[in-house]
Batch of 2 targets.
Target 1
Amino acid sequence: MQTYDLEANGLRGLNATLQSQSTETNQTSWEVVNPKGSHAIAVGLDAPIEVTVKGSTGYYCAGMNQQATVKVEGSVGPGVAENMMSGQVIVDGDASQYAGATGHGGLLVIKGNASSRCGISMKGIDIVVHGNIGHMSAFMAQAGNLVVCGDAGDALGDSLYEARLFVRGSVKSLGADCVEKEMRPEHLEILKDLLDRAGADASPEEFKRYGSARQLYNFDIDNSAAY
Amino acid sequence: MKDMDDQIPRTLPIQSATFTNPINAEIRRAAATGIYDIRGGGAKRKVPHFDDLLFLGASVSRYPLEGYRERCDTSVTLGTRFAKKPIELDIPITIAGMSFGALSGPAKEALGRGASAAGTSTTTGDGGMTPEERGHSSKLVYQYLPSRYGMNPNDLRKADAIEIVVGQGAKPGGGGMLLGQKISDRVAEMRTLPKGIDQRSACRHPDWTGPDDLEIKILELREITDWQVPIYVKVGATRPYYDTALAVKAGADVVVMDGMQGGTAATQDVFIEHVGLPTLSCIRPAVQALQDLGVHREVQLVISGGIRTGADVAKAMALGADAVAIGTAALVALGDNDPKWESEYQKLGTTTGAYDDWHEGQDPAGITTQDPDLAARLNPVEAGRRLRNYLKVMTLEAQTIARACGHNHLHNLEPEDLCALTMEAAAMARVPLAGTSWYPGKEGF
C-alpha cells in the first residue's frame, strides 16, 4: 500500500504518479489521505490499480478513468467518474450533480444518494445508486444501464436514447420520450449482475424498467410540444 | 369611354420591401411543411464586415517595407500561458472545427493535408477524432464539446491542443443537429447512437455550468493531459468583453471568438441570421478585455467568422487578434459550391454559391456528405493541395498589406493602420471614419 498525502504533496504530483503506473505495475494499491474536497483527484488513470481516497472529494474525482478501481470513503462533488471508459468507481457517501456524465464504460457505484443529472448523456457506463437520484437524471442518455435502488426525481430519462433505466422505488415523473417498458428475462439478468457487482441488497424483481419510446428520434412537427 | 380608361395613368405594381418575394416564399414553405428551415453555413445577411475597413498604407509619416526583399514574418505561437507545449504555427490562419459526420472522411483528410502543408493546425469537431484526421494533421486541435461524442482520454492525449467549445458564432446558445441521412454506420458507432436517427448535440456541457465550473473543468483537463497542451475556449460572439474576461479567469490559454458569419453544419436559418454579433464587432471588446486583465498577447485571441482573404486576416490582426480560423472558406477551397457541379445544384433546387443544404448529405462536391459515392468525388490529395495554395495566398496577401504599412510581422499591424468606410464599421472597429480622426463613441463629435 502506497500512501499519498494530498495536502502535503499536491494534486499534480498525485495525478502524475497515478497516471504513470503501467498495466504491469506491482504498486497496485494506493491510498490518498487528506483529500479535503479537492477537485480532479485521480483523473485520467489507465492501469489496473486500486486507489482509495480517505475522505470526500470535489469535482470530477476519477474523471475519464480507465482500468483503475477508485474508492472514495466519503462523498463526491459534481461529475464523479465523468466520461469513464472502464474500471470501477465506488463512492461510500453521496454524489453531487452529473455523476457518471457521458461515461462510456465501467461501473460507478454510489452507496448513498446521487443528485440531479446522474448519468447525463451516458454512453455505455453502468451506474448503480443504492439510494435516490435527483431530477433530469439520464438526460439524453445514449447507452448503458442506470440502476436506482431508491426513488427517482422529476423528468427521468428525458430525451433518452438507448440507455436502460431500472428504478426500484417511485419515479416522480418521466421526461420526454421516456416510458415504462416490459421487464424481460434478459433485463432481469443484467440487473442481477449489476446489483451483485455493486453490493446492493435488492431483488431484480422489485424494479421497473424504463426506456426510450423512440418517438423523438426523427424530427416531426407533430411532436413539437415535446421539444 | 374605354378609350378614355386607356389614357389614365396606372399605378405600377410595387413590391413590398417588407414582404419580399424571398420572405413570401419562406412563408409559403413554412405553411406547407410545418417546419422551420434548417441549413448549413453562416449568416447570409449583409452585416458590417472587414470590407468596411481600409488600410492606410505608408506615407511621409511611415515608411513601407520592400515587397519582395524585406522580411515580414507570419509565425504565431498559441498557448504560451500555461501549456508546456504551446502550438507553433507558420501562419496565423488555422482551420476551424468541423466534424467527421458533418464532413466526409476525404474532406477531413484534405483539411489535414492542406493545413499541414501550410504549417498550420486543423481542428476536430463534434464526433471525435478519426485516425485518418490525426494521421494527416501535423497539428490537431481536439474539440471538447457538450455532446462528448467520441470523447475519450486517449484521443485527448493525442491532441496538440484542446478546444472547449462553449458556443459558435452561427448559433451562440444553441446546440446542433445532424440529420439521420448523415448518420452512417461509422458516424453512428463513433457517437454511440442508432443509425439513421436525427442526432442532437447539446447546447450546454453536461457537467459544468458557468465560469467557476469551467475553471475546474480546465483544471481536470490539464491534469489528465499533464499540463502539456494549450486549452482554448471557443465562444460564439455575443458578449465578447465579458466572455473573454471570464474565459481568461477560468484559465484559458487561448480564446476563440466566432462571429455570426461563422458556419455551421446544420442549424435553423432563423438562428443563423438573428442571433449573435458580426465578427467585426467582437474583436475590439475581446481585445479590450485582454488588455484590461493585462494578458493581451499572453492569452492569444483567435478570430473566426467570415474570414475570406488575406485582407480579412490582416484587418483582424490589426484590431488585435493573434490568429484567425477559417471554416467555410476552407470548404470552398476544397471544392464546395464549385460551378462545375451547377447542373447537380440545379437538380437540388439551388445554384452555385447558394448551396447550403449541407445537412442533407447530398453535396455534389462530396464534402458535406457521408454518401460513399459522393464522398469519392473528392480527391483528398488534390483538395488538400488547393487548401494549401489558398492558405499561402492569404498569407501572402496579408504580408503585402503589412509591408505596405511598414510592419515586419503580421502581429505588428495595429488599429492605427485602419480607417472605416461607414459609421457602423467605425463604431464597431473603433477606428476613425475615413478622412476623419473620429469614430462613434469617441469624444469630440
Target 2
Amino acid sequence: MGDLKLPDIDYGALAPMLILFGAACLGVLVEAVVPRARRHGVQLGLALLSLVAALVVVILERNTRIVTIGGAVAIDGPSIFLQGSILLLGIVSLLLIGERSIEAGGAFVSQAAITVGSQKDLRQAGSSGGATEVYPLTLFSLGGMLLFVAANDLLTMFVALEVLSLPLYLLCALARRRRLLSQEAALKYFLLGSYASAFFLFGVALLYGYSGGVDLASIHAAVADPARSEVLLFGGLALVAIGLLFKSAAAPFHVWTPDVYQGAPTPVTALMAACTKVAAFGALLRVLYVAFDGVRWDFQPVLGAVAVLTMLVGAILAVTQTDMKRLLAYSSIANAGYLLVGVLALNKEGLSGTMFYLVAYGFSVLAAFGIVSLVRDAEGEATHLSRWAGLGRKSPVLAGLFSFLLLAFAGIPLTSGFTAKFAVFGAAVDGGQTWLVIVGVITSMLLAFPYLRVVVLMWLSEPGETTPAVSVPGFLTSAALAIGVIATFALGVVPAPLLDLTNDAANFVR
Amino acid sequence: MEQVEYAQATGLLSSLWLLVAIPLASAAVLLLLGKRADKWGHWLGVLAVAVPFVLGLAMFISLAGLDEEARSAQQSLWDFMVVGQLHVDFGLLFDPLSGVFVLLITGVGSLIHLYAVGYMAHDEGRRKFFAYFNLFVAAMLLLVLGNNYVMLYFGWEGVGVASYLLISFWYTRPSAATAGKKAFLMNRVGDAGLAVGIFLMFTTLGTTQYDAVFSGVGALSGTTILIMGILLLLGAAGKSGQFPLHAWLPDAMEGPTPVSALIHAATMVTAGVYLIARSNPIFSANLTLQTIVVSVGALTLLLGCIIGAAKDDIKRVLAWSTVSQIGYMFLGVGLGGGAYALAIIHLLAHGFFKANMFLGAGSVMHGMHDQVDIRRFGGLRKYMKWTWLTFMMGWLAIIGIPPLSGYFSKEPIIAAAFEREGWTAWLFGLAALLGAGLTAFYMTRLFVLTFHGPARWTDDIHEPHESPYIMTVPLMLLALGSIVAGGLMASPVAHWLEPVLGPEAEDLHAVIPHWLITVLSLVITVLGAGLAWAMFRRGTATAPQPAGVVVTAARKNLYTDAINEAVFERPGIYLTRALVYLDNKGIDGIVNGLAAGVGGGSGRIRRLQTGFVRSYALSMLTGAVLVVGAFLAIQLGWLAS
C-alpha cells in the first residue's frame, strides 16, 4: 500500500464556503443553547456576519485562479464573480427572511411539524414565535450554491446540488400562512427535485463511462478524442443538462416553478428566484463552456429549442395568470429562457452577458418579491391580481416602485432589464444565434402585456372594497427594497462598471 | 474652382450680432411685458428696426472703406451644434451681398413699421403685431447674415413662423386662418427640400459653411450638383412663391397690409432669390440647373401677369404682380454670370416700388372702409392726393418707364435673356418681353380703375379721406425711392456685388441688338398701358362679367389650385383614408387577433399545469426523452452522413 497522497488544499480559495458551512453549524448549536427569546437576533446577526465575511474573503481572493482540492473545485473568474453575486443577493434575501415587523413572528411558522388545523396549530398561529432554524438552513443552501458554481467535477457538483436543494425543500414548507399550500409546494419540489437529481446522477454515470473520469477537464479531453462512444457522451450530456435545467426552471422542466413559488414563504421564493438561479446558471455555464466546449455545434440546437420553448411557455402563460406570485414565477421562467440565450451564445460576451443578467435580474426580483410581501390583509399576503386594483391611489410610492420594477422586467430602457437583455441578445447575435434573439424579442413584447396590465391595474383602476392595506415595511425590508430598486436603476443607467467586471471575470480555468 | 475665404470681423463690424439681437430683444420685451407695453410698444418696435438700420448703414460704409478683395467680415459667436462629424458655428457674415439686404430689410422695414403705427392704430393687438413684426425682422436678418446654410435655415424657418403668425394675425377670420395654414403647409414642402439639400451638402462636402461649400463644390459630380441645386431651388420656390409652390402668396394677403408690404412683397419672398444668388457657385456649376431656374422664372412671371390681369382685389393684383416680378428675379439669377447682380438690383428696386404700392393700397383701403375691390373704387385722385401721386410713381416704376427705377432694373434682365445660347434666347427673351407688356396692362388697369374714371363706390361711402401723415410720409419716401433707386443703384450696385457674384454683365452676343430690345420693351410697355387706359378710362362694371376662356381661366388662377388639389390634395386624402382603413382593419386586426390567440393559447396550455406531481413528473420525463432523443438523433444523423 503506497503513501496516501493528500491533495493540495488552498484554504483561502475555499474560505467563503467554509465560513458559510461553519456558521451554519454554529447556527444549529445556537438553536440548542441560546434561549428562545434571543435566538432570532443572534441567528440573524450570525448569518449576516458570516455572509459579509464570506463576501469580504471573495473580494480579497478576487485575483485567485486555481483548481484546488484535487481538482474538485475551480476558483476562477466566473466562480468568484458568481460567488460574490450569490453572497450579495443572499444578504438581501436574508434581510427579507429576517423581517419580523410586518407580521408578528415573521413569515415562518415556529413548529412546522404540527398538523395543520389542529388545536395546537391554532394556538401556534397566535404566538409571536417563528422558526429560527431558517437561518442555518439558508446558510447551508447558500454554501451549497457557492460550491455548485465552483465545482470542477460532476460528483462535487452533485453533492453541492443536494446541499443547496435539501434546505430549500425545508424552507419551502415553513410558511406561517396557508400552511397546506406551503407543505404541498415543498413536497412537490422535493419529489421533482429528487427526480431531476436522478437524471443528473445517471448522466454523470454515463459520462464516467464515456471518459473514464468525472472531472470536467478529463471530459473535455475525451470529447476531443473521436474514438469514443458518442451515445454515451450525448446521453450523459443530455441527462446532466436536464438536471441543471430543472434547477434553472427551463421548460419543460419548469413545471414545479409556479406551484413552489406560490406556496413557499415569499422571502424564500425571493431567495430561489435570485440566488438559486445564479447557482443553476453558473453550473450550467461551467459544464457547457468547460467540459463540452468541443461539441458546441451539437448541443446548441437542442438547448436552443429548450430556450425557445422556455421563453414561449413563460411569456404565454404569464398572460393569463391571476396570482402575483405565479405571474412572477412565469416571468422567472421566461427570464430563464433569456439567460439560456446568453449561455448559448457560447462566446466570451455570452458568458459575461449572462453573468450580468443574473445579477441585474436577481436584484429586481428580490425587490419585487419584497413588495409582494408588503401587500397584505388579515389573511396574510394578498397575492390575487384583482386585489392590487387601485393600489396606486392608496400607496403611490410602493406602487410606483413596483411599476418601475415591472418596467425593468419588461426591458424598458433606463432600467437594468434593458441593459441585461441587450447584453445577452447582443452576445447571441455575435454568436450566430439570431433565431433565438428573434424569439426573445417577440416573447419580450408578449411579456410586456402582463406587466403593463398590472401597472394599469394599480394606477388606472378604482380601488375596490377589497384592496388590501399595505404594511409599513420594517427596516430590513426597506433596506432590501432600496438596494434592489437602486441596483435596478443604477445598472440601467451606468452599467459600464459591472459590465467591465463581468468581462474581466469571463474566463474559465480547466 | 476658386477658393472662397472670408476675413474676420474687426472694429465696428464685430458688433454684427447686434443687428439680429436688437429686434429679437424688442420682440421678447413686447411679448413678455404684455398689456403693460400697450402704450409705447409700437414705438419700441419702430426703434428696434430703425437702430439696426443706422447701425447697418455704418457697417456698410465701413465695409466700403475696405479693399475690394477684403470686403467681407465673418464672426463666429459660438458652436451651434457639434454632433459627430457635423460642426455648425453660430456664425455671421457681412459682405456686399448681405450688406445690401440688411439695408433693404431695415430701411424699407423702418418705413413700413412707421406706417404700421398709423395703420394699426385702432387695432387692439397692435403691440403683439409689432412684436411679431420685430421677430420677423430679426429672423430675416439672421437669414441674410448667417455664414452657413444651417444659420440660413434657422432664419428661413424663423421668417416662416413670423409670416404664419402675421398672415393669420386676424385669426378670428376663417379666411385669414386658412390662408395662414396654406402658407405654412406649402412652405413646408419647400423647406423640406432645402433641409434635404443641406443634408446632401453635409454628406458630400462634410460642411455647411459657405466658404467651405463654395470652395469644395467644384469637386462634386454634375449629378450631385444638379440634385443639390434642385433641392435648394425647391426651398427657394416655396419661400418666394414660384411655380409650382406659388399658390399661398396671393392668399397671404389676408394679413394686415403692412405685412403684405414688408414680408410678402419687399423682403421675405425675395429670400429665394437671395438663396440662389448666395449659392451662385453651386448654380453656376451646372448648365441644366440654370436652365431649370430660368424656366421656373419665365413660367412664373407669365403666370403671375396673366392671373394678375383678371383679379379685382387690389391686394391680390399686387400679390400676383409680386409673384410675376420675383419670376423676373429668378430669370435673372438663372441666367447666371452678370445677371445675378441684375436680379439683386431688380429685387432692391422692387422692394421700394412694391412696398410703396402696397402701402398705397393700404391707404386707399383705410379711406374706403377696407374695401378691396377695384371695381368699387374710381375717381379717388381728388380725395387722396398724396396716395394718388405716390402710387403713380410706383406704377410708372413697375411698368418700366424711364427714368423711374423699374426701367433700370427690369430692362437689363430682358436684354440678358436674349443673350442666352441658341433658340432659348428667343424663348426666354420673348417671354420676358411679353411679361413687360402684360405688366403694363394689368398695373395700368389697377391704377386707372382705382384713381381715375367715375366713382363706383358702395353706398356707405360719402367722402373718402386721405390718410394721416404718419402713413403718407413713408409713402412719400418710398415713392422717392421708386423714382430714383433704379437709376442711382444700377451700375454702383453691380460693381459693389462683384466680389460675391462675379464680374459685371457685358454686352455679349445678344440675338438682337441691345438698342432694339430697349425700344421694343418700351413700345410694348406703352402699348399695354395704352390699351388698359383705353379700356378702363370710363370705369367698368361693378361686378365681374362673363368673359372668354382665357379670362375665366385667369380668374381661377389658371387652374393651378385645381391642379394642386387634384395632384396632391385628393390623393393625399385618399392615401390617408386608405392608411386609416388599413390600420383599423389590417394592423389592429392582426394585433388584436394575435392578442386573442395568445390569450386563448395561454388559457389552454394553462390546463396542463394540473397541480398533480405525477403529471409534472410525466411532463419532465417527456421532456427528458425528447432532449435525449434529440441529442441522439443529431448524433445518429451525423454518423449516417
